[in-house]
Amino acid sequence: MKRRSLRLSVLIFLAVLLSFFAVNVQAQSSSILAKIGGENSLVGIEKVEKVAVSGGNLAISNQPRDGKALEVLARQRYAAGEFAEAAKYWQQAVSAFEVKGDWLNQAIALSNLSLTYQQFGRWEEANSAIALSRSLLPEESKVKSLVELKAIGQILDIQSNGQWEQGQVNLALKTAQQATKIYVKLKDNLGWKRSLIAQVKTLQALGLYQQACQAIIPVIESNNPEKFAIPSQDCQQFMTKKLAEIKGSVKTPSNPTLKNIKITGARLLGDVWRQLGYLNESQQLLEEVDRVVTQPEYPQEKALVLLSLGDTYQALGNRNKFLSESNYKEYYQNAINSYKKSINVATNNSFVKVQAQLNLLSLLVDDRIGSAVDLKVSQKLRTDILSQLNKLPQNHGKIYAEVSLMNSLVRLKQEEIKIASNVSNSSSVNSEQLSNYCLQNSSIVAESLSGNKSSVSEREIVELGAKAIELARDLGDLRATAYALGNLGTVYEKHQHWLEAQKCTEQALLLSQNVSLNAPDLAYLWQWQLGRIRWRGEAKDVQGAIAAYTAAFNTLQSVRNDLVPISREGQFDFRDKIEPVYRELVDLLLKGENPSQENLKQARNVIEALQVAELDNFFRDACVVVNKSEEIDKIADKYDPTAAVIHAIILEDRLAIILKLPGKISLEYRQTYQPNTLVKETIKNLQNNLIEKGNTSEALPESEKLYQWLIEPVESLVESAKNVETLVFILDRPLQVIPMGALHDKRSNKYLMQKDYALALVPGLQLLEPKPWNQVKSSKLKVLLGGVDKPQTLEGQDFTKIEKLVEELDGIGKFVETTKRFLNEDFTLTNLQQELALANIPILHIKTHGQFSSDPEKTFIVAFGSLLKSQDLDKLIKKGNKKDVRAIELLVLSACKTAKGDDRAVLGLSGVAIRAGARSTVSSLWVAEDAANTEIIVRFYKELRQPGMTRAKALHIAQQAYFKTGSEPYFWAPYIIVGNWL
After folding, report:
1. What's this model's pTM, rounded to 2 decimal places?
2. Alpha helix locations (H) across 206-234?
3. CA angle, corner 402, sides to 399 and 408, nearest 5?
4. According to the 3-state scheme, what is the secondary structure of 164-175?
5. In this predicted model, what pLDDT tens digit does every residue of 329-372 receive, in sequence order?
């Protein structure tokens, strides 16, 4: 899981940052403390293996020593990684300062003693030392000198680190924020920047990536160093304006003293950009930092940068594979190379080395990346990681490392079985007897594990999970305990040890719902897992499974806003971690030939919630808040008693169809048994043929299959209703790339568009303030026209000349009053915003190149000299939606297309329309010839003037009219209407 990787990565960074305090925390003047930006401050001593320290007080030499001299010896030992010796000297220094009554230096020595104890996981002593340290100093409001205040700030930094390493994330953030306030009071620029870096780790762990980005901006910026304020600009604004400046600042910093801080800040900013989904910018920045950081000068930072760069390459590979782009393997290989370099640079027995090894192993054993698993390399890596793990300090980072290794070994074991049996996709089930480490009387796991065996055993896998659980419980880290328990339950589930899986999962769920933890982002995972165990386990308890799945669904719905900040690199894991909860619940609800009305309604509501979640995931914002909305069923009955609503859902083994007929309360249900792989393959083939001129004969067989699967099962029901004139489709996302009018009925030799039904696509079960077109046009209509017909090259993409632009706009002007035209050089974001803000314009018509994609960074329309991305489109249309200005009733996007190979590209179209508040949108799914586009669009506006006309009927008539002169669907089928069809 991404969060696990993030936690361990942050721990690595913190080891570097906090090692700095043991060497530099001292009660000296701020001029001396300002030297803390030197070479060793950020790339100094890293965490190394645990060093055993005997219990009780360490012996203090009979030879009296000066506290300052002991402090120097302690720092030297700490810097050398000799933490046991360092602890001894810190204790002697504490005693020496106490004898002299030097409480300030005694407090500082105690804080450094706490930091030293943290290195080998002696948390009771570490917590006692930091508490005593803080008690020796006055309250912040009562300090008598700036030196005391600075000491409090630095002690709080160390306390925050300890809280973080014990899994107390919220408390760690609160303590770090206290330290930051102190540095602001002191006007200590270096301390302030350092404390902001420390805050970033907790903000990332809490999923607050936007805040993390804002916190890191002042660390990177050189301007206004005395302001001591977090900027209000969001991350995207900052990135757009300052990427080049940041890269230059890292390369040649204006203040050499802050060079280390800037390098670390730039690396963390690259991480945050990746987590926010700005993958290309993350790549550019991290590659620049990698060029700047040399191994001899910054060995530890070099390893960290390579680790971050590997994570970004992997995220790019995930994204491009998700979007069916051919170069995804190249990014995966770059990730593998970066991880290998990080491993080679990193110090042995360090968290950075282990994290790089874990990330590399996870990638090597993942057969989804398109490369064969190299067992020899993977097994050697497994052995190396086990050796390193045994030497790491006992903190929550180690818990997540053990869970990560456990999950990778599950996949490695599966590959071993496949190769051994020489049968692809063979079962990984094994007769090996396994202990249930989730039972109260489970045996204690060995202190260390070795990977000497040539192959992975199931026992080795589950014992890794058991060790993680044991450590998490020892640390009192509830979240890590729940995480480890749940993941061990997953392992048992995969091996079909159902009793063990259920016990682990129930314990993980109980902890996740504990009032002290309240972790819904974990709870839904274990509710979902419990549902799978009940459904697929020996009991085959369908009702119990539905109850567990419903609980998972309700948890997801209740924390919608909280789940949104999950990093957008996780957007491409959406299908794996969130979508299955919805789909599998629907599958359970629709079991059998005749599901209950209650189940049918619940299934529709669940899929509706999934599509909203997809839009949230698309924008990384809980944006789809439909105020003043009405349900589709009520809209149809109230405004259009001739409309039938068809809901199509792709399940694992069938296509489910739920039909709402005019005037009927009860729902009809039909299903076509076809595997989802075949359904999706048919959709893909049909889409590829439709967008190619002259491929009608190739498209026809696939078109007929979809008609047979989707339309035929309910066709007799629709025909028997007699009064149906409009078919309103609520389609599963992959189906949305196909215009329903292009489906062909083999029996009648007609396309659905040729029949007597107007067609519309709605994004869900609700519409925003739907108004019939007669009500809209009762007031004076105006249309804002714009477009670009000149050829341009923007962001490496060539956009050809668009023909018929002026002819199309002139044709529209014959039927609807137009305002200003914004053509070519005048077609800019600023001009459109100004016009929409000033005038009541219910129709916005744009003819220019554009693309819709399930990746918001690849959703755009072409303005003059720039690409207007999804966020720009959002701002553009919303600019006219002030309280005193009417919303956009109709948005027409002529000459746009959906991204090829992206089966969820319409997500970009419907997402922009819904988020912007446009009531309905007419757009093309691919770009046909300009003459055909212009003829259909002009006829559409002409028909809109007719009495009693709806938007869907106007488009239907326009397409039927063109069909008389050109029957090839390449020309007439691209246009669809999304949203309000009335």
Report:
1. 0.83
2. 209-220
3. 140
4. HHCCCHHHHHHH
5. 999 999 999 999 999 998 887 889 999 999 999 999 988 787 78
